Amino acid sequence: MEILIISIIKSLALIVILLTGFAYLTYYERKLLARFHVRLGPNRAGPRGLLQPIADAVKAIFKEEIVPDHVDKPVYLLAPALALIPALVAFAVIPVAPAMTLFGRTIDFAVADINVALLYVVAITSVGTYGVILGGWSSNNNYSLLGALRTASQMISYELPLGILLAAIVLSTNIGREMGTLSLHEIVLQDRPWWLWLWLWLAFPVFFIGVLAESNRSPFDLPETENELIAGFQIEYGGIKFALFFMAEYIHMITGSALMATLFFGGWRGPFVVPGTWHGALIGFGWLFIKILALLFLFIWVRASVPRVRYDQLLHFCWKFLTPLSIAYLVITAVIVVFAG
Amino acid sequence: MVLDYLPLLILFIIAAGFAAIAIILPTVLGPRNPNKMKQEPIESGMIPFMQAWRRFPVQYYMVAMLFIIFDIEVIFFYPWAVVLGKLKLFGLIEMAIFLGILLIGYFYVWRKGAFEWQ
Amino acid sequence: MALLLFLALALVALLAAVGMVTSRNAVHSALFMLVNFAVYAIFYIMLNAQFLGVVQVIVYAGAIVVLFLFVVMLIGGEIGAVRSSLRRYTYAAALILGALFVAMIGLGIAQTISTDQTVAGAPAAGGVEAIGMALFTTYLLPFELASLLLLAGMVGGVARRYKALDED
Q1: Confidence of residue A19 (pLDDT cuts 50, 70, 90)
Q2: Which residue of C has its CA nearest to B66?
Q3: Nearest CB to A179: which of B11, B48, B86?
Q4: Once rounded to an integer, what is the mean pLDDT over residues C116-124?
């Protein structure tokens, strides 16, 4: 019974944090893009435009709901939910702060600490494709269907280099231990020698490119391509249903950043963190938050600087460059683990 | 062990509930003035002349098929990656054979031009 | 508690299966199948086979159903229009295969009851470490043969496509 109550509280907290994170990520992005363009960005709603996300949310909720006649209605209504649910649940296994002891009980700052955490994230991401495919198909519009097929091909293709690199990271957890692990809690706690950190950082740019493509961000925002597909699979969606697709994309960005911070930059670890205490948990969360913000800045910086790739380039890049590269990385990591670990 | 997974089930139910509310609520709150123009497919001002549900190029299918095969291959990497510290050189040779056989297929597919997008 | 959860989920799986077979629209069928696969993943986890549970989601829900959806989209709207000359045979085939299937399941249940095998409850038996050790020592040969199977699938699919292109 107790586990039920704790789970419900943690789940609600996670969802509230992710939704707030989404709202202010849109603000963060618009402000930053404005800086890159030498503009001001949103500045009317509230001081410095800080209430802009709330105004947007209210507007989306009170818009007229249009369900066009030519769509497949059940699937059309289901698709935004299928996009959003995986985005909301993927974060669950990432530890956001060190566990702390309060009134004699240990509080763990993750919704779930499971032994196959890394694979759980892969599984949830692989299901995230459905919102896009079904949204595009059910709209029964030429543009949206083409957009959906393109996006689905893109997302499944880039899952491969990402999956291979994740396997290489799992391999690296063998070093200094009897066996490797898939638990993100253990990966954060593990002490790595300095040369292993360097070797892992070598993989970070490739992984980051994969995450960009997986979350359909610029320069891989082929699903949208407003000048050829006029917003792709989302074209027949308006109001809150459009906002839900948008929400899913941004929460994927947050989760991707948190995962990269956890795998490549030590998660909540940093100076002044004393695990087990309340201030340790607080500072640990602060470190993770800063790392996530920095990675999100990278997402937006790329969007402001790099032009969109062509569709054939996108698939060539994945199948002929990233995939062989990540296989080579995996093989070298395996050799390192066997001979140096 | 199984209990570790219960929070995920609960989170899933709550997330699904949130998505359902988010989709249903605005239909109650928002205004409603449907007209014929709003109900038509968007084609940038052109008059739609055909259904979108029709045949599509086989290239997309090839990507999906190759993806399944490589995905299954990647799945085998994970248990291997976890136990390689124990298997040592033996494990390395095992995977070298497995990967070698698959790389033959990879280069065949490459040579055949399945990665070329027309 | 666990039994209650199992029964509720089993009902969902059963309804999804019925929905999949009776659906007129191929995309709806694929969606019902997705629900079915998702429930199986939960069953695996409840049986302490966590690794199989997530693999079920990654491979079946994340890849195979996507391929089905692609196929449905590729052939377009002509699905469901089974040629009427084939109709007669489908009923006979369904009956025979259904009977075989029931016999198979019955045999499986009978065997399990008579030998009293308890699969569940073995701690860490389905964990990724246990599966890794078993796969890469005891079942080494099947593992290596799996690569040949995958190779055959890859080469076969691509070769078939280019043969079709040449014939055009």
Answers
A1: very high
A2: C154
A3: B86
A4: 53
Given pLDDT bands bounded at 50, 70 and 90, which one contains residue C7? very high
CA contacts within 13 A on the Cβ side of B46? 8
Could you write out the DSSP letters of every residue in C103-168?
Answer: HHHHHHHHHHHHHT---TT-TTTTSHHHHHHIIIIITHHHHHHHHHHHHHHHHHHHHHHHHHHHH-
Query: CA end-to-end span of chain A, whole Å?
Result: 43
**How many domains does chain A contain in total?**
1
Residue spans per domain, chain C: 1-81, 86-123, 127-168
Q: What is the gyration radius of the CA atoms in chain B, in angstroms?
A: 25
Domain boundaries, chain B: 2-112
Confidence of residue C123 (pLDDT cuts 50, 70, 90): low
B31 to chain C nearest CA, in Å? 30
Q: Which chains touch B (3 or more CB pairs under 8 A)?
A: A, C
Chains A & B: contacts with CB separation below 8 Å: 225
Q: Cα distance from A161 to chain B (closest Cα, Å)?
A: 9
CB atoms within 10 A of CB A150: 22
A interface test, pick of B12, B68, B78, B93 with most A CB neighbours within 10 Å: B78
What is the percent of chain A with per-residue pLDDT over 90, rounded to a whole number?
36
Give contacts of B99 with chain A, Cβ < 8 Å: 327, 331
Portion of chain C with pLDDT greater than 90, in percent: 24
| Domain membership flag for residue A307 | yes
CATH of span B2-112:
1.20.58.1610
A272-284 per-residue burial string, b: 16 or more CB within 10 A, e: under 16: ebeeeeeebbebb
Please report how the helices A129-138 and C65-75 are oriented relative to each other, as an axis angle in degrees rounded to 10: 20
CATH T-level fold of C1-81: Four Helix Bundle (Hemerythrin (Met), subunit A) (1.20.120)
Average pLDDT of chain B, as a whole number = 81
Q: Which stretches of A119-202 are assigned E, i.e. beta strand?
A: none
Give a yes or no: residue A9 inside a domain. Answer: no
Domain membership of residue A323 (yes or no) is yes
Q: What is the domain extent for residue A138?
A: 64-340
pLDDT of residue A204: 94
Chain segment B57-85, per-residue pLDDT in tens: 777 888 888 889 899 999 999 999 999 98
Residue among B72, B80, B86 whose CB faces C59 most closely: B72
Compute the average pLDDT of residues A281-310.
Answer: 91
- C-alpha to C-alpha distance for A64 and A46, rounded to whole angstroms: 26
Q: Say if CB A202 and CB A211 are below 8 A apart.
A: no
Which 8-state DSSP code applies to residue A110? S
Is residue C79 pLDDT above 50, yes or no? Answer: no
Better-predicted residue by pLDDT, A336 or B47: A336
ipTM of the complex: 0.88
DSSP letters for B16-74: HHHHHHHHHHHHHHS-----TGGGSPP-TTSPP-S-S-S---THHHHHHHHHHHHHHHH
